[in-house]
């Protein structure tokens, strides 16, 4: 992939400054994401396979729900891997911002997979509640529950840590999903304990509780993806961008600051005001410095577009022509 070179235009129009190290960082983020997905997929598929064998031997509906959840969690690695791969493609004349939004589409698929696993687990729990059956191999069920918890908690920590470091909402959502899988695995122990004490309904009841837990994860994951689709960012990032811009020599005032996530990289569009009697060359220098500072000091910011406006003289309106076209 060719490195993105800095592009400079005149001072009183937007211009963009992309640095090679930011491009390399973005590629490294995608590579880290792919490694996380490959490792977590292997761990979760192994966990689900072990649990599936014990489901057949025991007939535990709670363990079945947990196994389905683990399987769904493992399969979410597939759309995410595709998204990370697609997101590395360079921008084109049609997709001028690149393909980073593929991660958000993968997030939607993840939410749907979580919803399907909740529906299947809930259905099986209700069926078993209406037609109770004796659980077999209770000790093996308990062991499978502990295996499920250990595998999911490890994967959850790994995904959430890397997801936050590279700014991937989809990977964080996937990690939250895995974390809940771990706690629902522990819940299977309750079903096994109840069955051992002669209470067969404990197993389907725990299955229903697991379904409720999956629904809570579904809500959190859907909210995380919704925020990304709506271009929501942490207000603290906007505050930090304003602080960085205000500290640039020559910036009299900071105008609008807009940030958006494209995949796991931030893009910024900002306005700064400089002295109205400043030369074009000097104003251009201030804009480039503002751009440079933003890209290097704002976490995970890959590109910034800076627009300069003249500050003063008093009473002057430099946007009269655009007044009817601006939204507030």
UniProtKB/TrEMBL annotation:
Keyword line: Cell membrane, Ion transport, Membrane, Transmembrane, Transmembrane helix, Transport
Example of a GO biological process term: intracellular zinc ion homeostasis
Record domain Cation efflux protein transmembrane: where: 38-230
GO cellular component, one term: plasma membrane
Keyword NAD: no
Localization annotation: Cell membrane
Region (Disordered): 308-328
Membrane topology according to the record: Multi-pass membrane protein
Short name of one Pfam family: ZT_dimer
One MF annotation (Gene Ontology) recorded for this entry: ferrous iron transmembrane transporter activity
Transmembrane regions: 36-61, 67-84, 105-125, 137-155, 176-199
Recorded superkingdom: Bacteria
Coarse class of the protein's main subcellular location: membrane
Keyword Acyltransferase (UniProt): no
SUPFAM superfamilies, alphabetized: Cation efflux protein cytoplasmic domain-like, Cation efflux protein transmembrane domain-like
Family named by the database record: Belongs to the cation diffusion facilitator (CDF) transporter (TC 2.A.4) family.
Cited NCBIfam families: CDF (TIGR01297)
Protein name, entry field: Cation diffusion facilitator family transporter
Species name: Nonomuraea solani
């Amino acid at each position: 992939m060719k490195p993105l070179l800095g592009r400079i235009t005149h001072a009183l129009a937007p211009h963009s400054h992309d640095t090679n190290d930011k491009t390399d960082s973005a590629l490294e983020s995608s590579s880290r994401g792919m490694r996380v997905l490959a490792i977590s997929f292997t761990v979760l598929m192994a966990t689900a396979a072990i649990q599936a064998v014990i489901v057949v031997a025991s007939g535990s509906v709670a363990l079945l729900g947990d196994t389905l959840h683990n399987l769904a969690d493992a399969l979410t690695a597939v759309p995410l891997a595709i998204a990370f791969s697609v997101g590395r493609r360079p921008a084109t004349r049609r997709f001028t911002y690149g393909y980073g939004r593929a991660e958000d589409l993968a997030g939607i698929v993840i939410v749907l997979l979580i919803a399907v696993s909740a529906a299947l687990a809930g259905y099986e729990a209700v069926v078993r509640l209406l037609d109770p059956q004796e659980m077999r191999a209770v000790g093996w069920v308990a062991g499978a529950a502990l295996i499920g918890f250990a595998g999911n908690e490890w994967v959850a920590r790994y995904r959430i840590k890397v997801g936050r470091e590279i700014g991937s909402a989809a990977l964080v959502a996937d990690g939250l999903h895995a974390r809940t899988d771990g706690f629902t695995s522990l819940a299977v122990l309750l079903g096994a304990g109840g069955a051992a004490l002669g209470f067969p309904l404990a197993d389907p009841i725990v299955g229903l509780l697991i379904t409720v837990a999956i629904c809570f994860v579904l809500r959190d994951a859907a909210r995380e993806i919704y925020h990304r689709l709506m271009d929501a960012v942490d207000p603290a990032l906007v505050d930090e961008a304003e602080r960085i811009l205000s500290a640039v020599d020559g910036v009299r005032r900071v105008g609008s600051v807009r940030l958006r996530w494209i995949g796991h990289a931030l893009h910024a569009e900002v306005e700064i005001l400089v002295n109205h009697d400043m030369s074009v060359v000097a104003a251009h220098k201030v804009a480039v410095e503002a751009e440079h500072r933003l890209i290097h000091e704002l976490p995970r910011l890959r590109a910034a577009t800076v627009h300069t406006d003249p500050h003063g003289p008093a009473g002057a309106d430099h946007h009269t022509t655009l007044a009817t076209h601006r939204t507030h």
